[in-house]
Amino acid sequence: MGLVGSSIVRLLPLAPKFVVRWVANRYMAGETLNQALGVMRRIGSQGACFTVDVLGEEISSLDETRFFIREYEAVLDAIVEHEIDANISIKPTAFGLLIDLKAALDNIESLIRKASEHEIFVRLDMEDSRVTQSTIDVALAMHSKGLTNVGVVLQGRLLRTPLDISDISRVTGPSTDFRICKGAYLDSADISHTGYREIVDATNHAIDLMLDSGAYTAIASHDTPVIKHSLESLESRGMGPSKADPRHSSDVVRNRDKGPGYEFQFLLGVRGDVRRKLSDQGHRTRIYVPYGTKWYEYSMRRLRENPEVAMHITKALLMPWTNRR
Ligand code: FAD
User: Fold this and answer.
1) pTM of this prediction exceeds 0.90
2) Residue-wise over 267-281: b if at least 16 C-beta within 10 A, else e?
């Protein structure tokens, strides 16, 4: 991280909230569901679909889960009412995962059931390594109850990921649905890759393992070497826009909003130019749309966890043409 980036990390917590807000605005859809709906309506014309995230994560009491349950139920209702091409992403710790596993399972199940009534997919975002296994266990528990409209995120940087891919896909078979990303949390070298090149290589390897396992593979990276590798891997497996997924016969039914075995995912506000190009080439592209009142805490935590984000923000501010929303 350069001098400018590290200065931003040091200074942003001291900055007035409106300055942080100004920076965060690019990456958030607003504080309310209505604002998020407005953003999706505006960007929908660019050929992308969405996954909606209500900002907020680890909570300190189970009472706080009520807010997330109610808000996500409202998101599901709005997706149906406004016929938006969207699914939802949830953070299991916001549903009580680190407080009471049984309560978290019940909370998450009720939401997944409601989503399944409308054929809406639910992605369990992956948080830090304290909850990797329990998040996977939640998804497997839902599949064992016949709720197949749910899938986890795996992080390329974690050493355990190749094994997780084979273990999960063995249990959930053709209904396995992964999002693969590099991983936003900085973990130590005993459990994760730590260098840029190793993380890229490990993420690319994970993408190949997912494609070879037959799983639906949502590639969530803005990084050119990962996107380029993915395009080559898809092509060599006969996968691509408007081609039927060659890995499965037509009896594998996926949620209605899915692509032909894969899709590309981007964060709102990041590398819109790359996303639009993929979309123009016919690839299914999805934008992760966070909204909510917890934007300040969210921005600060992200920045502390991974100061590289400051570099991206600096670049986006100083050279906006490299990073159109
Ligand atoms: P990078 O090398 O970090 O970025 C490549 C280029 O993209 C940069 O040079 C820059 O131009 C641009 N860029 C990247 N990030 C930003 C930014 N914030 N602002 C401006 N420009 C930027 N991580 C998890 O741990 N768990 C999850 O559940 C999870 N879900 C995700 C969902 C989606 C849809 C996406 C896209 C990412 C998700 N991540 C998640 C984050 C991911 O793990 C990485 O931390 C993040 O995407 C940065 O890695 P990158 O592959 O995009 O490559």
Assistant:
1) yes
2) bbbbbbebbbebbee
What domain count does the chain have?
Answer: 1
**Inside any domain, residue 307:** no
The pick from 222, 273, 314, 325 for probing ligand 1's pocket by mutation, whose C-beta has the most ligand atoms within 8 angstroms, reads: 222
The answer to whether the beta carbons of residues 165 and 210 sit under 8 Å apart is: yes
DSSP 291: E
Per the structure, the complete domain to which residue 195 belongs is given by 29-291
* Assigned domain for 309 exists: no
Residue 308 alpha carbon, nearest atom of ligand 1: 3
Highest mean pLDDT among 1-5, 159-163, 297-301, 313-317: 159-163
Q: How far is the CA of 59 from the centre of ligand 1 (A)?
A: 24
Q: Compute the Cα dihedral for 172, 175, 181, 186 and give only its sign.
A: negative
Separation of CA 261 and ligand 1 centre (Å): 22
Cα 284 from Cα 305, distance rounded (Å): 30
Please indicate, yes or no, if residue 306 is contained in any of the structural domains. no
> By C-alpha distance, which of 287, 271, 243 is closest to 47?
287
206 lines ligand 1 (CB under 6 A): no
Give tens-digit pLDDT for 107-145: 999 999 999 999 999 999 999 999 999 999 999 999 999
Nearest to 308 by CA among 215, 245, 222: 222
User: Which tokens in the block code for residue 250?
Assistant: 């037509």
Alpha helices by DSSP H, listed for 89-245, are 101-117, 132-144, 161-172, 196-213, 224-236
Element (H, E) at 288: strand 285-291
Phi-psi bin for 47: left (phi > 0), alpha (psi -120 to 50), beta?
left
Which CATH number covers residue 241?
A: 3.20.20.220
